[in-house]
Amino acid sequence: MVAGLPILGPLTPPGRVAVVAAVALSAATLVLDVVHASESVVFFVAAAAILGLAWVVGLATERLGALTGPQVGGILNATFGNIAELIIAFFALQAGLIEVVKASLTGSIIGNLLLVLGASVLVGGLRHGTQRFDQRIAGSNAALLVVAAIGLFVPAIFVLSGGGRNEASLREESLIVAVLLIVGYGLSLVWQFTNPDRTLGGHGPSAGHEGPPWRIRTAIGILIGTAALLAMTSEILVGAIEPFIETFGLSAFFVGVVLVPTIGNLAEHLVAVQLAAKDRMEFAMAVCFGSSLQVALFVAPLLVIVGALLGQPMDLVFTPLEVAAVGAAVGISALIALDGESNWLEGALLVLVYLILAGSFFELRI
After folding, report:
1. H/E element holding 341?
2. Is the pTM of this model over 0.90?
3. CA angle 9-14-20, nearest 5°?
4. Residues forming a β-bridge with 341
5. Theoretical Cys-Cys bridge with 113: which of 209, 242, 333, 353, CB 3.0 to 4.6 Å?
6. What are the C-alpha distances in Å from 18 to residues 22, 222, 359?
7. Quick one: residue 98, left, alpha or beta (phi over 0 = left, psi -120 to 50 = alpha)?
8. 2 pLDDT higher than 50
């Protein structure tokens, strides 16, 4: 039992509940997989387990950040911010579900900038009226995201503009772009850690999220154990995706662009909404913009490189609807950031745009 391991130390009741629930759901997923239960049941239970495990990862990284200081905490958040989604995508890539993986990347960016930011602005606006934040800092972070999105979609834009390239050439170009994007991600981390006063949420008082009062060994042990359970559960989830798609008549594209990002990021999404509800809109924006930036500059290019190493080559050529959707999401969120204030109407419209796009993704069969 996790609470009884000497190296982990005592767990407080809230932390214990979160850990026990996540472990129990992971064990249930394993049992269902072993007894060959219905793939749809396995998919839903595995998804619930991943949600719980992602929440525990968030608690552990928050606590480690509080214990080690803002610099190390920033590195931890940058590393583990999208760990659940990255692990799911890795196993999907290994299984050859390239369509699902690519759709999950655009779905994550769209979900963060439209659904999560929209829900945060809506909830915060309803509770506190117009919310204000530093427009210079928000604008510079939004501009960085625009540049990152342009870099990510260069291969797709080239193809859509009528440029003729064979498949091997596109994958080569995607690999080069991936390496350059990771270099950009490294530079963005250097900027973030050397200029915290120019980063969303980095110049203000603490957001009040320090995680459960665990000792450092407890937090590290839980983080490592949770990552291992995430790997096991994600592999089972990926194995159930294709039967799930057949059972419910969904497209792999819709599952990738809507369901997979939601499963991997829901815990982080809830944190953003909670921050906005506490009138910490700048911190909520930091979660949405930071997660999107990490997907564009790190997760997507890393998967391209890993795919090449696994013999499952993946390019960065996305569908026209994906390119248009991400462009719209980045543009709209940048406009909201530029004026330094937000209200519930803006949030409601962001959510409505996401629902319109989700409906389009549902109808699209590729």
Report:
1. strand 341-342
2. no
3. 70
4. 132
5. 333
6. 6, 11, 33
7. alpha
8. no
